[in-house]
Amino acid sequence: GDSVTQMEGPVTLSEEAFLTINCTYTATGYPSLFWYVQYPGEGLQLLLKATKADDKGSNKGFEATYRKETTSFHLEKGSVQVSDSAVYFCALSGANDYKLSFGAGTTVTVRA
Amino acid sequence: EAGVAQSPRYKIIEKRQSVAFWCNPISGHATLYWYQQILGQGPKLLIQFQNNGVVDDSQLPKDRFSAERLKGVDSTLKIQPAKLEDSAVYLCASSLGGGGFGEQFFGPGTRLTVL
Lengths: 112, 115
Known about the structure:
The complex is a heterodimer.
Chain A: E1 3-6, E2 11-14, E3 19-21, E4 23-26, E5 32-38, E6 44-50, E7 56-59, E8 62-65, E9 75-77, E10 86-93, E11 100-102, E12 106-111
Parallel strand pairs in A: 2-12
Antiparallel strand pairs in A: 1-4, 3-9, 5-6, 5-10, 7-8, 8-9, 10-11, 10-12
Chain B: E1 5-7, E2 10-13, E3 19-24, E4 31-37, E5 44-50, E6 53-56, E7 65-68, E8 75-79, E9 88-95, E10 105-106, E11 110-114
Parallel strand pairs in B: 2-11
Antiparallel strand pairs in B: 1-3, 3-8, 4-5, 4-9, 5-6, 7-8, 9-10, 9-11
């Protein structure tokens, strides 16, 4: 079945550092790919998405490119802030159904 | 616009007891989802409703879990009887359509502790 594997955490960074969280997927056909974020004490929110190969999703300075050849959707941000401290989840929605399959989540802590 | 509402936010019960969670989706959203998120894991879909019909309940442990969405609006998820391994956060989400390209909006969740 469809599945997502993402980089294990926790990840601790200093402010203005570069952040990468790796995400790879296994799926049949052409899934849609998502990054969700969960800030402390809040619910899951969609951060960005990409629906076809080579699409780049971007939001709040974060970017991820849908790479079909490497089945990857890595999340990047060039300069993190303390407010980016959160748990980040990679997810996919299958080509034939709309069920979201999530990775285990990566906890990111940014120090001032 | 009001978000997805869930109650209660926290619940502590003993094993073999029953518990129910309530969810009110965003107004106009036809699709409603219940997820289980065990500590350290990503959310796992339990059941998906389209209006008041079940689309997918393949991962719902039907011997103890049940869910309904009688009028196509709010929904309840019940566990009877609860086991220790049911300790988790139960998330409700809704979307306008089937959710494939459309965004799922999540509620704050109900944290269940089974002792």
